[in-house]
Amino acid sequence: MIKLIGVVIVVxxxxxxxxxxxxxxxxGFATGLVSGMNFIDILDVIGKAFVTNRYMSLxxxxxxxxxxxxxxxxxxxxxxxxxxxxxxxxGRIMLLYMLFRQxxxxxxMQLGGHPSFIRPIVAPMxxxxxxxxxxxxxxxxxxxxxxxxxSENYGNFFGQLMFIAAGGLLLIKGVMEQTGYTVDLITMALxxxxxxxxxxxxxxxxxxxxxRKMAIKLKQAVESNSGGGVSQ
Amino acid sequence: MxxxxxxxxxxxxxxxxxxxxxxxxxxxxxTKWGTALxxxxxxxxxxxxxxxxxxxxxxxxxVMAIIASMKLIGIGSYxxxxxxxxxxxxxxxxxxxxxxxxxxxxxxxxxxxxxALGALVGLxxxxxxxxxxxxxMTKETxxxxxxxxxxxxxxxxxxxxxxxxxxxxxxxxxxxxVGKVVADMVSSIVPTESMLASVVAYCVGMALFTMIMGNAxxxxxxxxxxxxxxxxxxxxxxxxxxxxxxxxxxGYCGTLMTPMAANFNVVPAALLEMKDKNxxxxxxxxxxxxxxxxNIFLMYYLAFPGVK
Lengths: 232, 308
Fold this sequence. Notes:
Largest sheet of chain A: none
Radius of gyration of chain B: 23 Å
Radius of gyration of chain A: 22 Å
Helix content of chain B: over 70%
Structural class of chain A: mainly alpha
Distance between the termini of chain A: 51 Å
Oligomer: heterodimer
Strand content of chain B: under 5%
Number of helices of chain B: 14
Largest interface: A-B, 114 and 145 residues
Number of strands of chain B: 0
Helix content of chain A: over 70%
Order of helices and strands of chain A: HHHHHHHHHHH
């Protein structure tokens, strides 16, 4: 039981809103110490794991590209693009992106990501579709952005396992074979489809409800300060 | 000479050094020394990560955590363009502005598919290509390109390194045998004679342990050998392929609900400059829980062909 001390620290630390980096370090040291490692061993493990996982942060290379384009009106162009499109709502844009992500993922194409699609394209378009030329308060912008970020995760998670050579399927195969069971990749890819369909249906409902919620919220906001539209 | 992942790390480190240097010369930056040190240390782990002994890198990582938790890292000034100038530029370039951002994932994909370099090297090369294209198109200076990149990285702040931190924690959890404790606890409270209860234990166990580890792949081996194989497959006769894939998808439901999966949930919130770093998770819970529930039913009705 004492081995769960790290988990307890993480849960409590995040609940009390300490800085997550600090929480993770403390949890890491506590877990290491109860499992009989010394201070230097723990630093060694942290350092090595940090270096091994540098690939997770390669998106930093993409930031100057997005930065330059934003300086030259990328977000404003996303807005113009959406305002010229009849019937574009935030929810429909998100659903469309999710389907694109899911289908390309099922075909084994890893086309996507929050830095390459959500920040530069999907979120600004969704914001513009809600705003329709008005200025939105930060709280509503945050809601739209949070929702836009979900479309990447839903599409990615519930599409990738439909691809026969997906990393996830290979991992399942590896674990099963280690314990003496042979499993077939095609069967696994096939049985990833029902959950994928369920995810699309649930996301469609969520996004449609989101559109309605935004319409109601904005109507209220406009009425409550009918003088000059929605203020910042 | 072949391009390897190490070259991409050198490039990232170099970029971080540039950001760090620009931070020092940023007169309107309230926390410039902390921020500059933070990105410089991070840059060192990219350029010399393999050469420096593990405990020293670990010490640097601890220093970064301390800088962040003492709020010594923050936002500066970046000489941004005015809203009017951005609108003028948007009218001037039109939809061409999307091309450099789209070039990045397309090149990444092509390199992953048609060369032996791999997707990560592809991402690096794609980013460089996108960068060159964006520079040529907008005739922007390197200096304002650096400032714009720094603007986005500062907006993400300490969350940028959280994923790597959590990977280190996951490794420590693994070494301490946290997974076995969790699997033992779950299987000790489950009435094993019930097929449905075993399925629930496998799916919910995957979701919960993924939430702890922040990674469904890390959770899969532990929960499958601890619960999936002995209870669901051996005792009740499930097809391991079908049960396995649905269990993995249940783990993904857990990924949607945890700040431990920082690269999917917390980093995007920071990247989108959302006030609430848990905003993405809050939006996802309402979808993830029903999918988890449906996964339980899917496993119960689909994974036992010939048994029922």
